[in-house]
Amino acid sequence: MNRTALVTGGYGGIGRAVVRKLLSQGFHVFAVDLKPSVKNLPEEISGSDGKLIGIVADVSDFDSCRSMAEQVSAAGLGEVDTIVNNAGITRDSLISKMDYSMWDSVIRVDLYSMFNVTKQFVQSMIDKKFGRIINISSISREGNVGQCNYAAAKAGVVGFTKALSRELARYNITSNAISPGLVDTEILNSMPRDVLEKMIRKIPAGRLAKPEEVAALVSYLASDEAGYVNGEVLNINGAFFF
Ligand SMILES: NC(=O)c1ccc[n+]([C@@H]2O[C@H](COP(=O)([O-])OP(=O)(O)OC[C@H]3O[C@@H](n4cnc5c(N)ncnc54)[C@H](O)[C@@H]3O)[C@@H](O)[C@H]2O)c1
Question: Atom of ligand 1 at shortest distance to CA of 209?
Answer without folding.
Answer: 3
